Every structure is written in structure tokens, then in C-alpha cells.
Amino acid sequence: MALITLRQLLDDAADRNYGVPAFNINNMEQGLAIMKAARSCDAPVILQASRGARSYAGDIMLRHMVEALAEMNPDIPVCLHQDHGNNEATCLSAIRHGFTSVMMDGSLEADMKTPASYDYNVAITARVADAAHAVGASVEGELGVLGSLETGEAAAEDGSGAEGTLSHDQLLTDPDQAVDFVMKTRCDALAIACGTSHGAYKFSRKPDGEILAMSTIEAIHEKLPSTHLVMHGSSSVPQYLQDLINASGGDMPQTWGVPVEEIERGIAMGVRKVNIDTDCRMAMTGQFRKVAMDKPKEFDPRKFLIPAMKELEDLCRDRFERFGTAGNASRIKVIPMDEMAARYASGVLDPRISAAVAA
Ligand code: G3H
Ligand code: 13P
Ligand code: ZN
């Protein structure tokens, strides 16, 4: 079965008011668990690979693995998306390797540490959109820099993250600039900054509007009602997984993520793609630790991986159900990439045209 593009999937999500979790993937077990959850509740899937995942598994392995997952689940549309592409080469090589969608993260320079200028971001995102759309692939852009409104810092433990201390102006996407950005780049989805950050240590307390600016999302959606918004750093860092890890020899200091009910509010305000990696990591490693603690004589990796996959499957099913993704997969008929390319060429997918029609 052909993989679906992000644009087609998020257009469907917008028509029916649901959100789609985008789960990071590095290996077969994550893929099997996510797909099992999707199959159990008829949810379409976004699998995303970071640059780190691509070098960990290799492009050939990732491509064949995702194609195998799609073939094993013919009724589930699967989108393969590049997470946080740092330049044109990363994005275009992903498309060459079968990805149907790419994120060009021009909020940072190619080193993924230095906050980029607005003009740099517009120019590189527009160039990637031109090239991707010519072959029917989708593009996610990012405006605003991910990081904590409490500390002004981005998470240090992830592959990408701004260095130094960021101002609130950098950490919160400006709604007027967002309109200009989407019209100039013609990106299919827009990642926004609203106080979330990557990793487990997002908030030092349960977040309120001071440190998780849902009002920013609302203001952007008001100005860009037909743009698909993307929330990065959307792991909820659930207490039960912190407890599982710490009860099994882990040492994670108490922390808070993005409450699922805030994501549900975001979906009502135009958030269509919800990026989740940390929760998946915690689900699997929590079970690894538990098996290692409970059964110190065990050395068969499958005995670690089977409960880890089950924990991940349960987490994914919960997000599919809470975000309204469940129940939508078998209805969607995948549009092939060359047909998507023809639609871009005709202008019907151009945000400047939909904005003119709406006005
Ligand atoms: O963007 C952040 C994701 O959690 C991917 O992380 O670069 O360690 O694979 P990674
Ligand atoms: P988390 O670290 O909150 O899971 O965010 C993942 C992400 O945004 C990947 O792009
Ligand atoms: Zn991210």
C-alpha cells in the first residue's frame, strides 16, 4: 500500500476535527507496537524519523520497515515524515528514501543550535516546499523556537535545541508573522512555539497559561484558520511512567509534561499533528527496567521487548482515542504522490489561494 502524505492526512483531520499523534520511530519494535495500537482502533498513523533515527537504523532499513508495516496493515494509512530536517539535503534525501513528508526546521540554523533569522527561515522553507511539492511530498515548517518559558532554555538532551537563553519573543510564535510565513513558504503544516520543549523536563510544575501558552495557539488559529498547526514537545510525561521507572531503579526527578487535556484543547484550536517521542521512550524503558529488576536472571531480549511493546501500544492507543484519530483509518483512500504533485501544480493546495477564497 502506498504511504499517505502528511497534507492529505491533515486535510482529513481538519475536515473532521481530529488530531494525529506523530510518534518517533527508530526500530521494528516501536513500529509493531504503534501499528498494533492503530489497528485496534482504526487510526491513521504518522511515523516520524529524526536525523538521529536515520543514522541509527539507516535509510534503507527505515524505508523497508515502514513499507512492511504498511503492507501488514493494509487498512491503515501510514505517513513517513522527516522530523526536524536541518537543511535541504536532509529533507531531499528523506524524500528520495521514500518519506512522504518532511519538516524543514528553519527556526534554527543547520547546526540545530543557533536561532536563525526570519529571512533565513522563510527562504530555506520555501525552497524545500518548492522541491517537495514538485514530487507531491508535504512540508512542515517551524516558526518560533522551542524552549521553556520558565527558564528560557531549550532541552539539552535532544538532537536539536537552541543554545543560550531565549527571550519570550523567540519562544512564542508571533501570529502576524505566522500569516506572512505561511503565505511566503506555502508550507502544508506549521509547527509553532508555545512554551513546550523536547524531552522529559518541560515544566517544574503542572503547567498553567503562564508557562504553556495555549492562548498563542488560539491567536494563530484565528488568523490562519485553514493552516494545520503542529505541537512539538507534546509528551505528557505521565506520572505512572515516572513511577514505573523510579520503582525499577531509575532516578528521574519529578517533572511535568503537557497534560493530554491541553492537547485536546489545542486540537479544538487547529492543532492537527502532535509530536510524541519522550512518552514512547519512557514506556519502553520503564518495562525494560521492570523486567531487569523483577527477573535478574533473564537475558532473552524478547522477554524485555514484549512487555515494552505492550506498554507502548497501550500509550499509543490512548492518544489515538483521546485525539479523535481512532475510527478514521479505513475510510481514507490514499492519494498517490504524483496526483498530489499535480494538485500542487494546479494551485489548489496553495495557502494564498485558500486565503483569497476565504476573504
Ligand atoms: O526531536 C526530538 C525527538 O525526540 C527525536 O530525538 O534526535 O534523539 O532521535 P532524537
Ligand atoms: P517530546 O520530547 O515531548 O516527546 O517531543 C517530541 C518531538 O517534538 C519530536 O519532534
Ligand atoms: Zn520536535
Overview of the structural elements:
The chain is globular. The model has no long low-confidence stretch (mean pLDDT 96). The longest helix is centred in the last third of the chain and has 22 residues, at 301-322. Helices cover 48% and strands 12% of the residues. α2 crosses α13, α8 (175-185) crosses α9 (214-223) and α12 (278-294) packs antiparallel against α13 (301-322). The protein is an alpha/beta fold and 359 residues long. It has an eight-stranded parallel β-barrel with strand order 1-2-3-4-5-6-7-8, surrounded by ten helices. It has helices at 6-16, 28-41, 51-57, 59-72, 88-96, 118-134, 168-171, 175-185, 214-223, 239-247, 260-268, 278-294, 301-322, 337-346, 351-358; strands spanning 20-24, 45-49, 78-85, 101-104, 138-143, 189-192, 228-231, 271-276. The chain has a single domain (6-347), classed as Aldolase class I (TIM Barrel, Alpha-Beta Barrel). Glyceraldehyde-3-phosphate is lined by residues 24, 50, 52-53, 83-84, 158-160, 198, 277.
Structural class, from secondary structure content?
alpha/beta
Radius of gyration of CA atoms, rounded to a whole number = 19 Å
Termini gap: 38 Å
Unreliable spans: none
Quick recap of the structure?
Helices cover 48% and strands 12% of the residues. It has 359 residues and is of the alpha/beta class. Glyceraldehyde-3-phosphate is lined by residues 24, 50, 52-53, 83-84, 158-160, 198, 277.
Helix and strand arrangement:
Blueprint: H1 6-16, E1 20-24, H2 28-41, E2 45-49, H3 51-57, H4 59-72, E3 78-85, H5 88-96, E4 101-104, H6 118-134, E5 138-143, H7 168-171, H8 175-185, E6 189-192, H9 214-223, E7 228-231, H10 239-247, H11 260-268, E8 271-276, H12 278-294, H13 301-322, H14 337-346, H15 351-358
Parallel strand pairs: 1-2, 1-8, 2-3, 3-4, 4-5, 5-6, 6-7, 7-8
Helix pairs in contact: 2-13, 5-6, 8-9, 10-12, 12-13
